[in-house]
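User: Before I run my own analysis I want an independent prediction to cross-check against. Here's the chain; please return only the structure tokens and, at the end, one sentence I can use as a sanity check.
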Amino acid sequence: MSNKFLSLIADEVLKKIILKKRNIAIVLPSKRSIQHLKKEISKKLDNPIFLPRILTIEQFIIEIANIEVIDNLYTLTEFFKIFSKADDKKKFDEFYDWAQILLNDFNDVDLGCVDSSKIFRSLLEVKELESWTNEEWSFNNDHLTAEQENYLTFYSNFKKWYDELYQSLISKNKAYKGMAYRIASEKIFNYQSEYEKIWFIGLNALTQSEEKIIDNLKNRDIARVYWDTDKYYFENIDHEAGDFLRKQKRKWSDIDFKGVSENMSIEKDEFNIISCSDSIGQANAVYNILSSIPENEIGSGESIIILPDESKLLSVIHHLPKNISELNVTLGYPLKSSQIIDYVISFLKLNSVKSNSKSFYYVDLLNILNSSLSRKVIDNKNIDKVIKKINNENLVNIAPETITKLNTNYKLFTKKYSNVNELVPQIINLLSEFLEIEKNVFQREIFIKVIDVLVQLQYLFDDIEITIESFLKLFTRESSKLSVTFTGNSMSGLQVMGILESRVLDFKNVIFIDLNEGILPKNQPSISFIPYDLKIHFGINYSKRNEAIFAYHFYRILQRARKVNLIYQTKSDSFSFGEKSRFITQLESEYKSTQINYFNYESELFSKESINEIENKGCNELIDNWLLSGISASSITTYFRCPVSFYCKYILAIKEPQEVEENLNPMTFGNLAHSILEKIYPHKILNVRDFEKMNDGIDLLIKAEMFKILGTKDLRGINYANFKMTKELITKMLDYDMSLVKKGAKIEIIDTERKIDFEIKTAHNKIKFFAIIDRIDRFEKDFRIIDYKTGRVDHKELNFKYFDSFEEIKNRPKAFQLLFYLFLASSCHEIKNEKIISANISLKEIDDGLKFLKHNHDIFETNNNFQKDFLNLIETIIGEIRTSNYKSCQRESCIYCKNLF
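Assistant: Structure tokens:
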């Protein structure tokens, strides 16, 4: 590209320093832009020259301020010392959350060069007025409640805290960023420039402090400003992308604005808007776009992928086509989901006061024991023994003596720590040992970064009393900022970066990913003590300003591009509601220079690594083993639902690991209800007195069964809700039967939870059948099989037309289950040779009564041919299992199936 903005700047630079021998300094938005400007200059040279001084706007301002800029953590500790000076009993825990917000406000006040006395006085007045609207408070100047006084005192302290923090930091020649910018804007009046001219290149949304600095230099004829903009949005007074530059033109009307381009009015080679169902669809779209770009255009660094959401980085990299030989990623991959960070967080949680003080909470302990990191330093057999004991005994709070079976010298695994100063050094030591044995460069980088954060936190809070809970908050916040940067040749290959890194850079091929509302512009509500209206009045940072900033960056990167692809996701996720960005909508309405093409990418449900079909080869022996181990109704209905899941669970006999249950999951909740109904009904002809006894014993029975499952008698919170729900369902079931008895019906409970198994040898197979039938009873003259359901039951699922139709039965798993139970129940001595009917009853829909198995809408009952017909059906099913490949069911929910990946 010959018309790159930095190429034009390079021409200007060479004119000044070669032809006119000018001594100049150049100020750019970012370090990345410095590298690209140097490249553009070098491309135009035949012989080497001394380049002018080139630095970022932040470096330039800090040089003027001549002060050390500190990070947020250091500022926080300094602020706490000031806050606790008046009362040394103040706890850091009470301070941490609101202090973060207030420090951000201090930073904004300084960046905006706002008079701190005026803004904090105005804020206090606003809070006083707001308090008048609180009906519970009656403001009388003669008498304020303690609550009112505390509320207003808090806001009245802002100015005092601001001043004391400023004095404390300035005495150490330190400053947070906003404070450094304010100091620079004050020192600029005495600044003696060593340069004849200072060029400010490609800046956009200047803070008040930056404006003051440039304004002063401009008045002294030192500053020269070069804007990177386009008439498309600059001259349209309603277009937010040009808001800041139009304001600066009005203020500095004497500055030459001939750098305004008209590139957006030139027809582009391609302009595509692409909708994708999800992240995989977006990655597929990128793959196809890049495959169509000539290799030389990618290799020369003329193509860029812009990622507003950095968490999508790896999914994009993994889907790149083979023609991408070089890659330069300038944004870091976030480590907030790193195994190492999760590992540290688990240790901090394990020792927090919120956990039982004498025992370990199972979730955090299992996270630690299951980690591959723990298995590097502890014998795996010992870890597996402890995990098995926790799961088998359903231990929620685990005594230290259980953990001693790990047989490890690392106290971190077996001792409960009560303070940060003891715990954190142990974590650092363990991570340092992992670092020594780690060979992977990427993993070593993560260990180093995490250890550095822990060391820094420990050092800064060495003389501040802090709980493990507060340290956990700090570590979680600071570690969430960590990222690992991928290295590469910054000038060649495919460029991948965030939108802020793209400032003043131009590319021939531009691909935007995740161009959704809420992602770009980012839907990030500002948390501040200063109200929105007050921010606007004093001209400091507010959300509308940020939207205009990102609008400028978006349109600027498009203005010189020749091929544009804007990709967005139509499926809602945690970041957006599947709505395309307003920037796309705006382009669709206003952009006329190039015809916009529309495409849609539906993602494949499964990735190339997932299992779509398993070949049925050499499985006969395994199938025989399954048949002899005992086939159940649920195994067959699993096959109906998903052959791959059936193959994994029953043919390969892969068992899901047993897990601790602190609260009842839906399956266990169903088992609980079944267990209570098994035990509560007496095996006899029922009378009203029986129901009175059953109702009297419900509470004790439910509590006893829940204790067996959960291992705790604590029924607070969600467990109490489960207790109440279970009691309601069981009571409704008892009331339903009692109402029938009261009307004169004869109900005899023959058995509950009847276990039945027997073997049959057919012409082709030897089969063992197995079932547990919830209830066998006699209602008047009818023998019934009743299967309890905790979910809903649709009567259509229980009606079938053709007994021998495998396809029909396969689509009615509940009907098949009842047929299976009827087949086994007909062998019970109590009802052998009797006609039997069957039904589901939904415990959530008791009022609907029994929903019977029906054949052509008539209640189905066993007859002389039933066993033969059912065996024929079973033989048909087994025949398919033996001969067909196992295919996944291809439902959307399959992406969560562990068997497929």
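Sanity check: Residues 132 and 138 are 7 Å apart (CA to CA).
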